[in-house]
From TrEMBL, chain A:
Protein name as annotated: General transcription and DNA repair factor IIH subunit TFB4
UniProt keyword terms in alphabetical order: DNA damage, DNA repair, Metal-binding, Nucleus, Transcription, Transcription regulation, Zinc, Zinc-finger
Gene Ontology biological process: nucleotide-excision repair; regulation of DNA-templated transcription
Cellular component, GO, one term: transcription factor TFIIH holo complex
Compartments where found: Nucleus
Tagged with keyword Ligase: no
Region (Disordered), start-end ranges: 301-322
GO MF annotation list: zinc ion binding
Species annotation: Lentinus tigrinus ALCF2SS1-6
Assembly and oligomerization: Component of the 7-subunit TFIIH core complex composed of XPB/SSL2, XPD/RAD3, SSL1, TFB1, TFB2, TFB4 and TFB5, which is active in NER. The core complex associates with the 3-subunit CTD-kinase module TFIIK composed of CCL1, KIN28 and TFB3 to form the 10-subunit holoenzyme (holo-TFIIH) active in transcription.
Described function: Component of the general transcription and DNA repair factor IIH (TFIIH) core complex, which is involved in general and transcription-coupled nucleotide excision repair (NER) of damaged DNA and, when complexed to TFIIK, in RNA transcription by RNA polymerase II. In NER, TFIIH acts by opening DNA around the lesion to allow the excision of the damaged oligonucleotide and its replacement by a new DNA fragment. In transcription, TFIIH has an essential role in transcription initiation.
From TrEMBL, chain B:
Keywords: DNA damage, DNA repair, Metal-binding, Nucleus, Transcription, Transcription regulation, Zinc, Zinc-finger
Protein name: General transcription and DNA repair factor IIH
UniProt source species: Lentinus tigrinus ALCF2SS1-6
MF-aspect GO terms: zinc ion binding
Limits of the VWFA domain: 110-261
Region (Disordered): 1-57
Length: 322, 452
C-alpha cells in the first residue's frame, strides 16, 4: 500500500430494514449496534493503514442523506470529546463523531409514520462530488507531479440492507457512469436482504466487488478481507468476485424491474408493455408493430415479472442443434 | 448537417476538449492569474482537465494551441482572470439556453473504424502530419459518435505493413475505444496499406450482430495504393451480402476502387481538400444513416423509422461459473450471457438470441443516453443572501465551506456568476459550490439534493 487511498463509505441506515435484519433468523441477523462496532473497527483499520489515507462516511437515512464524517474535517461533532490516553486520537474523533451524528439523526425519526425510501442516490452523488473535489484539489496542490490524480485511488463502499428502489434507476445509472468517468471503484457489501440489481451493475461497471454477506457474525472479516485493500492491490490478492450480474432495468411507466422490455427506438425509453405513444419523446409507433408485439406478448408475459434468481443455473444451457 | 433536435457540438464531451485546448496556453501563466476564491477554483479545475488531456497527446503540436489566444484575451489590467471567468460563465449561459428536452433518434449501430497507418500517412500536406491529424480527429469522432449513438459499438482496425491489424475490439464504451487509439507510439505508420485485409478483418468482427443493427465500415485512407492478397471485388460482394456499408474519407486523391466500394454498398465517399474539410467529411458520418436520409428529405417532423422494439436484458455469468456450451459457436465456455426468455447462453451482447430470436442488449448501454432525456435543471446563481433566512454554511454536494464575503467581479465577465460562489437548485433549494455546479451538470446529471 504505497499510495494513499481514499475511501467513501455509504451506510444504509433505514431503521425498518435494520429492525428486520436484527430479527431475521435465517440467515442469522445482526443488530445495528453490532454492525456499527464492527464497522468502526474496519474504518479505524483503513485510517491506520497509511497516514495519508482519507475517509468520508455518508449516511442514507429515510428520505435524506448526509455526510457523517470526513477526515478532512468538514464535519465536526458538537460535543467536545474527552481525551483518552489509551486511544489513538484519530480513532477517537472518528468514533465519537460518527456515533453522535448517527444517534442524533436516528432519534429524530418518528417510527409511527411510514418510512420513506433511503437517500441512496443523494449519498452516491455527494460522495462523487466530494471525490471530484478531492481529485481537483490534490492535483493542484501537488502540481506538476505526474500521476497525482491517480494517487488518490478513490473508491466508494456501499453497505446496503434495503431492497432496490426502482424509481431511482436513472439517477443511479447516471451516478455509475460518472463514477466510471472519475475512475472511482464502487464496492457493494449486501448485509441483509435480496440481491440488489442496480448495485450489482454498479459494482460490475466500475470494476468493484459485490459481496453478499452469508454469515453476519463474520462481517468484520468480510470487510477486512474484501474491502480494505485498495483497488490497485486487488489484482494481486483474490477478492471475491461477483457471482453473476443481473442486467435488468426498470421500466419508465410503472418503475417495475423488467427483464424483457419494449424500447422506443428514438429515445430508448423502456416500457413493460407495448404502448402506442412514447411517453418520454411523444413519438407515435406504427400500428403494425403494436399488433405484432401484442401478438407476441403471451410469450413475453409468460416470463415472470421478477426473476427467481436461485434455481437458474448456467449449466442447464441447451446446446444448439446441429 | 445538423440533426433535428438539440444537443450537439459544444455540449458535453466535445466541449470538454474545446476548453482543454483553450486552456493549455493558460497553464504557462500561473503567476499572472493571481486569483482568489472562485477564480482559482475554476482555474484549477481547468488545469486539471488540461493535464489529463496532455497525457493523451504526448506532443505539443497535436493541440491547436494557436486557438487559445482567439478565445482568451487579457483585460485592461493585463490579467487573465476575467477571461477564465468568462469561459465558465459562457458555459453556464449555454446550459441555460440549451433546450430542456433534447431528444435524438438512435438506432443500434456498429462501426469499424479503419485507420490508414501506412507510410503515406507521414506526409505533411496536412498539419502537423496526416497521421497526427487523423488521430486527433478520430478521437473527436469517437466521442461525438458515442454521444449521438449510445447503443452503438466501435471497433478499430489499422492498415500497415500490408496487413490488417486489430487495434481495438468492438466496444460500447467510449473510454475503451479512446484508449485503443490514445497511444501514438503503438500506431507508428509504416509500409503499405491493404484495403482487402482490413475490410475482411472488419467484416469478421461484425458477423455475430443482430439483424436490426447497422454494420458500417469507415475508412480513413491516405495512400494511393493498396496491396491485396486476392481480388478485392470478391470482398466487395461479400460486404454486399452482409449488408455492410462502407464509407471512405480519402486524404490524397480519388481511387476508382474506393469510390466503387462506397457507391455499391451505399456509403459515402469524399476526398478531403484541407484539414477543415477532412473533419467535415468525417463528422458527416456521425448521425445515424436513417437520420441522414430524413435530413436530406428535409422533413424534420417525419420519422419513418421510429419504432417500438422488444429487447431482453440478460444475466451475465462470471468466468468462474461451470462451463457450458454457447448457442452461437457451440463452444464450452464459462462466461456468457443468459437470454432472459429461453435461458440460452450467448457469448456477446448485443445480439439476437439464436434460439428464440429475442434481441439481447445490456441495459447500461441504453441508460448511457438517459441524461439527455432528463437533464438537471440549471442552478440559479445566488447574488446575495438577504432573502435567505438561514443560509447553509457548506456546499450540499461536497461539503466545502462557502466564503462569507462576496468577491469582486471583473467587468461583464462575471455575468451569470455568483459573487458568493453559491448556485441554488430550483427544485430542492440547496446551495452548491462552483465545482459541484459544473460537475453535477456536465458529469453526474443528477442533483445531489433532490435526485432529479
Ligand atoms: Zn411499466
Ligand atoms: Zn421515445
Ligand atoms: Zn458463442
Ligand atoms: Zn432466447
Ligand atoms: Zn461543492
Ligand atoms: Zn436539487
Amino acid at each position: 500500500m504505497d499510495k494513499p487511498s481514499h475511501l467513501s463509505v455509504i451506510l444504509d441506515l433505514s431503521p425498518t430494514q435494520w429492525a428486520l435484519c436484527a430479527q431475521s433468523a435465517n440467515p442469522t441477523g445482526i443488530t445495528l449496534q453490532t454492525f456499527l462496532s464492527q464497522l468502526l473497527a474496519f474504518l479505524n483499520a483503513h485510517i491506520a493503514c497509511k497516514d495519508e489515507n482519507t475517509l468520508a462516511v455518508f449516511g442514507a437515512f429515510p428520505g435524506q442523506s448526509g455526510m457523517l464524517y470526513s477526515s478532512t474535517g468538514e464535519i465536526t461533532s458538537a460535543r467536545t470529546e474527552s481525551t483518552d490516553a489509551n486511544t489513538y486520537r484519530p480513532f477517537r474523533t472518528l468514533d465519537s463523531t460518527l456515533m453522535t451524528l448517527i444517534a442524533e439523526r436516528l432519534e429524530s425519526y418518528d417510527s409511527t409514520t411510514e418510512e420513506a425510501p433511503i437517500g441512496l442516490v443523494g449519498c452516491l452523488t455527494k460522495a462523487l462530488c466530494y471525490i471530484n473535489r478531492a481529485i481537483t484539489t490534490s492535483s493542484s496542490s501537488v502540481t506538476e507531479i505526474e500521476g497525482a490524480v491517480a494517487s488518490v485511488d478513490p473508491r466508494i463502499l456501499v453497505l446496503s440492507v434495503s431492497p432496490d428502489q426502482s424509481s431511482t434507476y436513472i439517477p443511479i445509472m447516471n451516478s455509475i457512469f460518472s463514477a466510471q468517468k472519475l475512475k472511482v471503484t464502487i464496492d457493494v457489501c449486501k448485509i441483509f436482504g435480496a440481491e440488489n440489481v442496480f448495485l450489482q451493475q454498479a459494482a460490475h461497471l466500475t470494476g468493484g466487488a459485490y459481496v453478499q454477506v452469508e454469515r453476519t457474525d463474520a462481517l468484520l472479516q468480510y470487510m477486512m478481507m474484501s474491502f480494505l485493500p485498495p483497488p490497485a492491490i486487488r489484482q494481486l490478492i483474490s477478492v471475491p468476485t461477483q457471482d453473476r450480474v443481473d442486467f435488468r432495468a426498470a421500466c419508465f411507466c410503472h418503475k417495475r424491474i423488467v427483464e424483457i422490455g419494449f424500447v422506443c427506438s428514438v429515445c430508448l425509453s423502456i416500457f413493460c408493455q407495448p404502448v402506442p405513444v412514447c411517453s418520454t419523446c411523444r413519438t407515435k409507433f406504427p400500428i403494425k408493430t403494436l399488433q405484432r408485439l401484442r401478438d407476441a406478448r403471451p410469450l413475453a408475459a409468460a416470463a415472470p415479472p421478477t426473476k427467481p434468481l436461485a434455481p437458474k443455473n448456467g449449466t442447464a444451457t441447451p446446446a444448439r442443434p446441429g | 448537417m445538423a440533426p433535428p433536435a438539440g444537443r450537439r457540438i459544444g455540449d458535453d464531451f466535445v466541449d470538454d476538449s474545446d476548453s482543454d485546448v483553450s486552456i493549455t496556453g493558460l497553464e504557462d501563466e500561473p503567476s499572472r492569474t493571481k486569483s482568489k476564491g472562485k477564480g482559482k477554483a475554476i482555474d484549477r479545475n481547468k488545469k486539471d482537465k488540461g493535464k489529463a488531456k496532455a497525457k493523451e497527446q504526448p506532443y505539443a503540436w497535436e493541440a491547436s494551441y494557436t486557438r487559445s489566444w482567439e478565445t482568451v484575451q487579457e483585460d485592461e489590467a493585463g490579467r487573465l482572470e476575467g477571461a477564465v471567468q468568462d469561459l465558465i460563465a459562457r458555459g453556464r449561459r449555454r446550459r441555460l439556453l440549451a433546450p430542456a428536452a433534447a431528444i435524438r433518434r438512435t438506432i443500434i449501430r456498429h462501426l469499424v473504424l479503419v485507420l490508414d497507418l501506412s507510410s503515406a500517412m507521414m506526409d505533411r500536406d496536412m498539419r502537423p502530419t496526416r497521421f497526427d491529424l487523423m488521430l486527433q480527429y478520430a478521437r473527436e469522432f469517437v466521442t461525438e459518435w458515442f454521444d449521438q449513438n449510445p447503443l452503438g459499438q466501435i471497433g478499430v482496425v489499422g492498415m500497415r505493413g500490408g496487413l490488417g491489424e486489430r487495434i481495438g475490439e468492438m466496444s460500447g464504451n467510449p473510454q475503451d475505444v479512446l484508449k485503443a487509439i490514445s497511444e501514438r507510439h503503438k500506431l507508428e505508420p509504416n509500409g503499405e496499406p491493404s484495403l482487402q485485409n482490413a475490410i475482411e478483418m472488419a467484416r469478421s468482427s461484425m458477423s455475430h450482430l443482430p439483424t436490426h443493427s447497422s454494420r458500417e465500415i469507415t475508412i480513413i485512407f491516405g495512400s494511393l495504393t493498396t496491396c491485396d492478397p486476392g481480388n478485392i471485388h470478391d470482398t466487395l460482394d461479400e460486404c454486399l451480402k452482409d449488408r455492410i456499408r462502407i464509407s471512405i474519407v480519402a486524404l490524397a486523391a480519388e481511387m476508382k476502387i474506393c469510390r466503387d466500394l462506397c457507391e455499391k454498398t451505399g456509403g459515402q465517399f469524399g476526398v478531403a481538400m484541407n484539414e477543415g474539410h477532412f473533419k467535415d467529411l468525417l463528422f458527416e458520418l456521425i448521425p445515424p444513416p436513417a437520420q441522414r436520409a430524413v435530413a436530406r428529405a428535409g422533413g424534420p417532423g417525419a420519422n419513418p423509422a421510429a419504432d417500438l422494439m422488444i429487447m431482453g436484458f440478460p444475466m451475465r455469468l462470471p468466468d468462474t461459473s461451470p462451463p457450458s456450451l454457447c448457442v452461437c459457436h457451440s463452444q464450452m465456455k464459462s462466461e456468457g450471457f443468459l437470454c432472459p426468455r429461453c435461458l440460452a447462453k450467448v457469448c456477446d451482447v448485443p445480439t439476437d438470441c439464436d434460439i428464440c430470436g429475442l434481441m439481447i442488449v445490456s441495459s447500461p448501454h441504453l441508460a448511457r443516453s438517459y441524461h439527455h432525456l432528463f437533464p438537471v435543471k440549471p442552478y440559479a446563481a445566488v447574488m446575495s443572501l438577504e432573502d435567505t433566512p438561514d443560509p447553509s454554511k457548506r456546499c450540499h454536494g461536497c461539503s466545502v465551506a462557502f466564503r462569507d464575503t462576496p468577491s469582486t467581479m471583473f467587468g461583464a465577465a462575471g455575468e451569470g456568476m455568483s459573487p458568493l460562489g453559491r448556485y441554488r437548485c430550483p427544485e430542492c433549494h440547496n446551495d452548491f459550490c462552483t465545482d459541484c455546479d459544473v460537475f453535477v451538470h456536465d458529469v453526474v446529471h443528477c442533483c445531489p439534493g433532490c435526485g432529479k
